[in-house]
Amino acid sequence: MLKTYYIKRTTKKTIRTILVLGVLLQGIFGSCLSVKATEISLEQNVIVDGSILTDDSISEKVLYNRTRGNILNRGVARITNNGNGSVNVYGAVLPAVKCDTLRLEMTLQRYEGGGWENIKSYSNISSNASLLSKSYNYSVKRGYYYRVKAACIATKNGTSESQMPITNGIWID
Questions:
Q1: Mapped to the 3 state alphabet, what secondary structure does the chain carry?
Q2: What is the rounded average pLDDT of the residues 18-33?
Q3: How distant is the alpha carbon of residue 167 from its chain centre?
Q4: What is the Cα–Cα distance from 59 to 90, expressed in whole angstroms?
């Protein structure tokens, strides 16, 4: 009779221990999965330093000069997901008149650690021109948001006008 009681008691303890371990493991793995899902959904459509974090494959920002008699008409910045772990960085300076110099400064940025970090910069100058546009492909680390920040500057007879377009952040996976 003592053997039967001891076996029943040991079996109940074993079953209880297995159930407790199962619940603990489910809690641990379940919380890991839900945290990751929450992390991704929290990042979507969040505005960080003027840019919306999106899952779009392209983002473009065009800034217009609304004053009459202007030198600089538009400044353009665009980022495109090429789909192969690279992005296309594009910018343009579109003056209203032929200018002495046009300058285009573009910076590719990655969203990491709660802020935008500069990854790659491009600088271009054109003289005696009425258009300056440049496009570059750049391989990036997957699993991050990227954006393009541009400085578009037009100078004529010593007078300069500028626009600073910044795209939204696009997800590269």
A1: CHHHHHHHHHHHHHHHHHHHHHHHHHHHHHHHHHHHHHHHHHHCCCEECCEEEECCCEEEEEEECCCCCCCEEEEEEEEEECCCCEEEEEEEEEECCCEEEEEEEEEEEEEECCEEEEEEEEEEEEEEECCEEEEEEEECCCCEEEEEEEEEEEEECCEEEEECCECCEEEEC
A2: 51
A3: 9
A4: 10
Per-residue pLDDT band for 65 (boundaries 50, 70, 90) equals confident
CB atoms within 10 A of CB 75: 26
* Alpha-carbon gap, residue 168 to 145, rounded angstroms: 9
Residue 160 reports pLDDT greater than 60: yes
pLDDT at 34: 39
Q: What is the pLDDT of residue 10?
A: 54
